[in-house]
From TrEMBL:
One Pfam short name: DDE_Tnp_4
Lineage: Eukaryota, Metazoa, Cnidaria, Anthozoa, Octocorallia
Cofactor(s) the record lists: a divalent metal cation
Highest taxon above the source species: Eukaryota
InterPro entries for this protein: HARBI1_dom
Protein name listed in UniProt: DDE Tnp4 domain-containing protein
């Protein structure tokens, strides 16, 4: 999802501007999550290490994201702190029922 831009429409309405403001903080938090994965697992840096069709890029990223989410369950992350929410427990995240 992209922000509304002049050029896509003639004039940005107040609703469009408010939507852009609201989505901006969410977009930044999503970027933090991608950064968390890349910083936690350096091998996942696509531009430097992974080549499409020569390695299982998608599978590597899914495993790295899963591992990063488990670390988030243990230690939190920038996004959980920003939104003042506690991450789930590992059991809850993995769907383990006692």
């Amino acid at each position: 999802m992209a922000p509304y831009r002049v050029g896509d429409v003639q004039v940005l309405t107040e609703d469009m501007k408010e939507f852009n403001r609201a989505m901006s903080s969410l977009r930044v938090s999503v970027e933090w999550l991608f950064g968390d994965v890349a910083n936690s697992f350096k091998f996942i840096d696509f531009k430097k290490n992974l080549k499409l069709r020569l390695s299982a890029v998608g599978k590597f990223y899914v495993v790295a994201a899963l591992m990063r989410n488990i670390l988030t369950c243990l230690y939190g992350n920038t996004t959980s702190k920003y939104f003042h929410i506690d991450p789930p427990t590992i059991d809850s995240y993995l769907g383990v029922h006692n």
